[in-house]
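Fig. S4 source data, part A: sequence.
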Amino acid sequence: MPAALVWFRNDLRLDDQPALQAALAQGYAPVPVYVHAPEEEGDWAPGAASEAWRRRSLMALAADLHARGSSLVVARGPSLVALERLAKAHGAEAVFWTRRYEPAIEARDATIKRALRKTGLRAESFNGALLVEPWEVATKSGDPYKVFTPFWKAASVRVRPARLWDAPARLPAVAGAGEALDAALPAPTPAWDNDFWSYWTPGEAGARAALQAALPRIAAYPEARDLPAIDGTSRLSPHLHFGEVSVQRVFAAVGACDAPVEARSAFQRQLGWREFAHHLLHHFPHTPERNLDVRFDDFAWARFDATAFDAWKTGRTGIPIVDAGMRQLWQTGWMHNRVRMLVASLLTKHLRLHWSHGARWFWDTLVDADLANNTLGWQWVAGTGADAAPYFRIFNPMLQAKRFDPEGAYVRRWVPEIGTPGYPAAIVDLAQAREAALTAFRAR
């Protein structure tokens, strides 16, 4: 039986794996490979938290393959060199993978596909990450969408019931071994990530468990998702980012669950925001660094204040719900979405620091750091992107805390010294900072 390399990237699963499915359907013996080449991701090489998750997810994938009689071949980049070498070593006739949509990766993958085909190999890529690919939806004039609601109206009608695919119980054995995963992607030293894993279980089994745990909460999702003190969200974001569960399976499971149609639609709409983020990133590849709304290119951001930024990063701003969010991020690698908006608003509005500073910090510290979602989220709060909250919409974090954490349970969990002499005074006067931000906005 001829072989095909199945190149795993951010699709670390065996079910609903289109590259693996294609290899088997076309009569190839799959050779699962992972090539570690973060330097090929340009200015947005994965952050530390992402790499800590990736390592554990790859360990889980390797174990899942081993249980089926196969194995994961690990190599280090450059990716093209590694794929050509592995194809020769395993007698492969083809290389299959699922697509990614980050600008640097899209360009790299196009180059790799052309180069592999020139050597006589079949090289094919598949959609394994999105419900609708970025180029499949356009306005009547043929332009990309910049507003979510019409985007999702157009995109959602293109979502078809998924033909879910369960990986076979057995896979062909793979001769020969690659590098040890610990050599290509070593564990953090010191083990600063240890606390993460009491909250998370990377890998396909962990993703499936998270999905099953989320389904009973869908009925309450429209209201509960804004309450950071409770488990009102799905906590699927890192599993979706690393492709440990397919978005098609999540969409279908939510659509079929025992919850009111309004609640199911509300959750699926959030998956639509993920689609919108990738749509924007594909069509506007400059946005991780620059404003989509060029009217903000000359905006009077404040001079960078390292002391204030450090207080924000470490959860020592003296604004309780902001500090709670930043400490949750540091200890768990994740932050509740409502609180993400509040910490981003404080940074970009009250401190008036450029959104890119916050985006970079999130990129390094979030286990679900996704370039499309991170860019959309920060530009949305800053008011500089597509379908953004207007810049003059400035969240008051104290009022938001009263509304969404009325008993203070979330704040007390992450800021236990609240109300004691050890808790710092606020680094900014919220009312004065709001007026300064509005003055800068009017003057732009």
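Fig. S4 source data, part B ends here. The chain has a mean pLDDT of 96.
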